[in-house]
Records
---
Amino acid sequence: MPATRLDGKKIAAEIRSEVAADVETFVSGGNPPPQLAAVLVGEDPASQVYVRNKERACEKAGIASRLDRMPAATTEAELLAKVAELNADPAVSGILVQLPLPAKAAGGTGIDERAVLDAIDPIKDVDAFSPVNVGLLMQGRPRFLPCTPHGIIQLLHRTGIETSGKHVVVVGRSDIVGKPMAMMLAQKDSTCGPAVANATVTLAHSRTQNLTEICRQADILIAAVGRPEMIRGDMIQPGAVVIDVGINRVGDKLVGDVAFAEAESVASAITPVPGGVGPLTIAMLLHNTLMAAKLQAAK
Ligand SMILES: Nc1nc(=O)c2c([nH]1)NC[C@@H]1CN(c3ccc(C(=O)N[C@@H](CCC(=O)O)C(=O)O)cc3)C=[N+]21
Ligand SMILES: [Mg+2]
């Protein structure tokens, strides 16, 4: 029997309508609508698509959005000045600087990404990339949860997939997905959102030896490596749950980090690409933007 497809798009729609209802309550309580400020440096086509999707999702949830476009040749000082302006603007609830920033080779000026993310006011840091928010997450008392891992937590929770005591293998150790994902699943009880926690976590990566054997021990396998179809069918334990975080453009097709057709015949459940984790990332961004507005209203 082929694996059940975990419908991220549908769950994201549920979450978005919950956020929309909460936004309505917040605004009818006399608050200005939450506002997400996105900063897009350069002309990367994939980034243009994401930013447009985010704007549309905001609008549907009653969240205001502004987009500041800056040329690829923007300097670090100019971008830091933009971040400072958004930090100081009381109408702005959340700030998202779209990554990646343009590389030098692409006409960029070699902006230090870390310096820019560090400059975002932690109370407006809806990506949860700032050191303060990462630290709070690490200590099991998060403020903002990073959007992609939080989306995966919601997906597991809302589809009734048990994580307590299970072996989760996360492949990929990025600051955006792999690292926080591992941390969140290993936490006690519900310190990181709904009660999706208490897992035994293996964090695997490009230097991991015997990757196939390790993946095959996973009850839940989370692929976040950014390499198209790297996870093959023989790396999956029969009956495992497979979460595919990859968004790779191959020609005009969007493919995940998992070889879907092979995986589908081995796994018990799997997220498709597109329509899996991606839409959940955007839903959790809306959630965080409302949360930021609430935190600022309470100050
Ligand atoms: N500061 C920052 N925060 C981010 O959260 C961030 C970022 N920079 N840079 C780029 C990545 C990527 N990302 C995606 C979000 C949604 C989809 C998404 O909704 N994907 C759809 C398909 C969309 C399509 O067709 O391209 C899906 O998977 O079904 C994909 C990718 C957020 N990112
Ligand atoms: Mg890696």
---
Amino acid sequence: MKRSQSVFLIGPMGAGKSTIGRLLSAELKLEFFDSDKVIEERCGANIPWIFDMEGESGFREREEQAIDELTQMGSIVLATGGGVVMREANRRHLSARGTVVYLCTSVEQQLARTAKDKNRPLLQAENPERILRDLFSVRDPLYREIADIIIETDQRNPRWVVQELKRLIKG
Ligand SMILES: Nc1ncnc2c1ncn2[C@@H]1O[C@H](COP(=O)(O)OP(=O)(O)O)[C@@H](O)[C@H]1O
Ligand SMILES: O=C(O)C1=C[C@@H](OP(=O)(O)O)[C@@H](O)[C@H](O)C1
Ligand SMILES: [Mg+2]
């Protein structure tokens, strides 16, 4: 474990970052933040609206600012958004300021878990599976580059993942 107690969850849409992050924070007795929620609260608008009005680049600017601040807080659990690794500054801050956990999930599971949710603008397209596969090929090496812990979540329920993570982090 690094000097900071913070744990940063990374991985694709539907990996379970937001769900597992909240449960893990309760187990570790650390404060929980979800960078997407922080961005929405600060902006006073939801992510689809931000993408509509400011484009993906506007969202990425807001995300970089939020990640820089949140990773400096110390002793938190942070669920990031799936695209956080696309910016070098984010990768640098995450890997220097806490333990980075990659929640690894197949595209089939990502698809099943995100199918009914309209809040992910990148997936509101004709072929979300194609998009998830393309994103995976670009992002998977970047997740791996900064991960301290890699954990498979496909056939595991969130509570099992949390217990396993607790063991690995403390270990
Ligand atoms: N390990 C898991 N097994 C089954 N369903 C899961 C698991 N993790 C998350 N989910 C479900 O998948 C959906 C997306 O999870 P979420 O935490 O929002 O993912 P992320 O923040 O990584 O995009 C939610 O409905 C959640 O309940
Ligand atoms: O993969 C991405 O680029 C995104 C993932 C989303 O977060 P989740 O990974 O929590 O769904 C959210 O940040 C935004 O819709 C963009
Ligand atoms: Mg999330």
